Amino acid sequence: MKNFKDKKIIITGGGSGMGRHLAYQLAAEGAEVFVTDINAQTLKETEQEIISKGGKCKSYVVDSGSEQQIFDFKEKYLAEEKYVDVLFNNAGMALGEIELMDVKDDHLKKIIDVNMWGVINFTRAFLPTLISRPEAHLVNTSSVFGIIGVKTQVPYCTTKFAVRGFTEALRMELADTNVIISCVHPGGIKTNIVHNGIHYKDGSKSADQFEKMAITTAEDAATIIIRGIKKGKEKILIGIDAKLIDKIARWFPVKYSVMVKWFHERNFKK
Ligand SMILES: NC(=O)c1ccc[n+]([C@@H]2O[C@H](COP(=O)([O-])OP(=O)(O)OC[C@H]3O[C@@H](n4cnc5c(N)ncnc54)[C@H](O)[C@@H]3O)[C@@H](O)[C@H]2O)c1
């Protein structure tokens, strides 16, 4: 899709970070933007900022971890708007640094509900209307942690590998349709994801390291994603870190873990 003017675009997780900046930039290009988020306040801020600049935006509080809320939103949205041209499955959460056996059951369930089921259910809800459009794009956000596995991130990696697998397999199923499917793999992006992590500890070594290593701004990340969509790119890597990790995982598909372990112990060990 080369031009977003007058396109109807749904962005999940539009209240912060990359989702918010995607909404700003796409609205500035003339799209009608529909943002969803669990955080009513930040979501409203995104909507008001776009409208104050003359753009078109409507916001809806939807918990991406709730199948019921997603399908209720679908009914309401389609009754009012009839169709959607682009769906960004961007909403996501992190737990923070924690080993698998220390993760509480409800936290494990929650991250899988939001990061994996959220993407699956939003896609199931809106795929028929995407397929009915003359051109359409589905954009699912995975991570570099959907390319490599990392200790203390087992639940997050599980969900992000799932998003990648779901996206790549669905792309084959939809090869004969007008829907282009992109999988986004951001490296470290300066957003609220780590601060909002359930196990985030202010001032901890891992939190400080993330601040230092998140080298790309959310604004630049959104620009890279939009540029990737315009070029029809199916795999969108964001940041030099993501590009390097992708290469290492392809050069050393098993042994990359030795490098990751060394890097982790050097930078993240408390
Ligand atoms: N920031 C990074 O370094 C990074 C790296 C790789 C992948 N990602 C992924 O990028 C996506 C965007 O994250 P971000 O970095 O902009 O973080 P962010 O925390 O700034 O934004 C995420 C948004 O998702 C929303 N959200 C969280 N749980 C939700 C739920 N249950 N229902 C609806 N909305 C919910 C949050 O309220 C927030 O507005 C996520 O999928 C994240 O996993 C981020």
Describe this entry's structure for a reader.
With 270 residues, the protein is an alpha/beta fold. It has one domain (8-268): NAD(P)-binding Rossmann-like Domain (Rossmann fold, 3-Layer(aba) Sandwich), CATH 3.40.50. It contains nine helices and nine strands. Strand 7 (189-190), helix 6 and strand 8 (216-217) form a beta-alpha-beta unit. The longest helix has 28 residues, at 105-132. The protein binds nicotinamide-adenine-dinucleotide.
Approximately how much beta-strand content do the residues carry? 15-25%
CATH level 3 topology: Rossmann fold
| Overall CATH class | Alpha Beta
Bound molecules: nicotinamide-adenine-dinucleotide
Order of helical and strand elements: EHEHEHEHEHEEHEHEHH
Category from helices, strands and their pairing: alpha/beta
Please outline the major beta sheet: 7 strands, parallel
Strand order of the largest sheet: 3-2-1-4-5-6-9
What is the domain tally?
A: 1
Give the C-alpha Rg: 18 Å
Judging by the overall fold, what is the CATH architecture?
3-Layer(aba) Sandwich
Characterize the overall form.
globular
